Amino acid sequence: MQPFVFLSCFLFPQILSAYPVEKRQVGPLSENDINTVQLAHYLELLELNLYSGGCNNFTDAQYSSAAFPNGFRENVCVIAGHEQVHADTLATILQNNGVAPLPPCTYQFPQSVDPTSFVSLANMITSVGIGAYLGGSELINDNPTLEEASGSILTVEARHDAYLRTGLGASPFPTNFDTGLTANWAFNLAQQFIVSCPQQLSGVIQLPKLNVTSPKPPPNLQPPVAPGTTVSFAWDPSTFFVPVDPNAQLYIAMVNQNVSAPIFQSVTSTGTGTGNVQVPQNVNGTAFAALTTFSGGLSLNDLSSFGTLAGPAEVVLS
């Protein structure tokens, strides 16, 4: 099956009708509230398109041939229905507060060429969504109704991810804690799947890209990538926002579970715009990495605000 690019979702009517939009009355919204809901809506539209493809582009027989359990595709379609309701609910919250929700972008998922690659990609993208909801919670804690609405979506997203991981044969709960993300990092992690948008989010900055070139996650995320394994990154120094001495020591800051204490590692250069680090001890599940000139002492918020030269990149370890 060819990689797919599509804008809108074509779900079975019975699936959509089973999940009516919840009429949550949330308001008034502060500027932080609006920005947080706009980002959540932006990411829900991305997930909606992804899961719609997983529902419509592959057959039950293809899922079965890839060793997924009976009914797996049907549940992928159910997840797509959930994402539609999440997107519609967030849009309604914005509209009820006089804010126009952003229209969908055009998306591409070239990695999703069969059921296994789709589910592996869905695990990565859903991890970003979970991180965005976690990171956004501190910005809306002065609005209990919005905080409850956001939390009720977050828990369902986590259930989706656990189901997907189980289907792959991986642990449904690989870490003690999930990893929160700032709005800027979550936005940038989504950009690799976005072709164009009729209207872009405000209040975020598109950062230079950081790519993980190896290792690739195993198809079923097992066995976990072992501590000490070399992780190779690539970046384009010409895209940095600030001048950097070509001979300067660079670092990879890896965020995993504890966002207040990223792990900083010296990059071993392998050429212009390429370098390696090793997987630290006690890092598992999904980690998020940024290239930086800082050797330590920054939190995730610091990295997101001023410390990121390139990134973030998503590093799937287990």
Overall description:
This protein is α+β, with helices and mostly antiparallel strands and 318 residues long. Helix content is 40%, strand content 17%. It is built from eight helices and eleven strands. It has helices at residues 13-17, 31-56, 60-65, 72-96, 115-137, 144-168, 183-190, 300-307, and strands at residues 4-6, 106-109, 194-196, 210-214, 230-235, 251-255, 263-266, 268-271, 274-278, 286-292, 310-316. A four-stranded antiparallel sheet has the order 4-5-9-8, with no helix packed on it. The chain has a four-stranded antiparallel sheet with strand order 7-6-10-11. Strands 1-2-3 form a three-stranded antiparallel sheet, with helices on one face. Helix 2 packs antiparallel against helix 4 (72-96) and helix 2 (31-56) packs antiparallel against helix 5. It is globular, with a radius of gyration of 19 Å.
What's the structural blueprint in terms of helices and strands?
Blueprint: E1 4-6, H1 13-17, H2 31-56, H3 60-65, H4 72-96, E2 106-109, H5 115-137, H6 144-168, H7 183-190, E3 194-196, E4 210-214, E5 230-235, E6 251-255, E7 263-266, E8 268-271, E9 274-278, E10 286-292, H8 300-307, E11 310-316
Antiparallel strand pairs: 1-2, 2-3, 4-5, 5-9, 6-7, 6-10, 8-9, 10-11
